[in-house]
């Protein structure tokens, strides 16, 4: 897949303990993005944060949080990102979904020549 120039970055913020049918929500989002043929997805685990609940979640040992913030980031062409949004409406009950414009400078897999 070739991806360069103008694109959209879709970022979904959820909690580590969020689930979809007894499986981690982030796992379901990544697998649906893959099935939809999106260019790629990454899940980043935060060390501290809070959201709409205003409850601070932290990785500090004394707090023993099991619900750290996660960000699922997907970059692809605008039409493909927008076509994926209805799936997020189904999946994300609590969280934040944002889209921002980006410019892709290089998108290459392993083994791709420079």
H/E series: EEEHEEEEHE
Q: What number of structural domains do the residues give?
A: 1
The fold-level CATH name is: Alpha-Beta Plaits
Radius of gyration: 15 Å
Tell me what portion of residues adopts beta-strand conformation.
35-45%
Global morphology = globular
Gross CATH architecture: 2-Layer Sandwich
Q: Please estimate the helix content.
A: 10-25%
Low-confidence stretches: none
Arrangement of strands in the largest sheet: 4-7-1-8
Structural description of this entry:
The chain has 114 residues and is α+β, with helices and mostly antiparallel strands. The chain has a single domain, classed as Alpha-Beta Plaits (2-Layer Sandwich), CATH 3.30.70. It has two helices and eight strands. The chain has helices at 25-35, 78-91; strands at 5-15, 19-20, 23-24, 41-45, 48-49, 57-58, 69-76, 96-104. The strands form three sheets. Strands 4-7-1-8 form a four-stranded antiparallel sheet, covered by helices on one side. A hairpin with a 2-residue loop joins β2 (19-20) and β3. α1 (25-35) runs antiparallel to α2 (78-91). It is globular, with a radius of gyration of 15 Å. It starts with a strand and ends in a 10-residue tail after the last strand. The model has no long low-confidence stretch (mean pLDDT 87).
Features:
8 strands, 114 residues, 2 helices
Please outline the helices and strands.
Layout: E1 5-15, E2 19-20, E3 23-24, H1 25-35, E4 41-45, E5 48-49, E6 57-58, E7 69-76, H2 78-91, E8 96-104
Helix pairs in contact: 1-2
InterPro entries: N-reg_PII-like_a/b, N-reg_PII/ATP_PRibTrfase_C, UPF0166
Protein name: DUF190 domain-containing protein
Family: Belongs to the UPF0166 family.
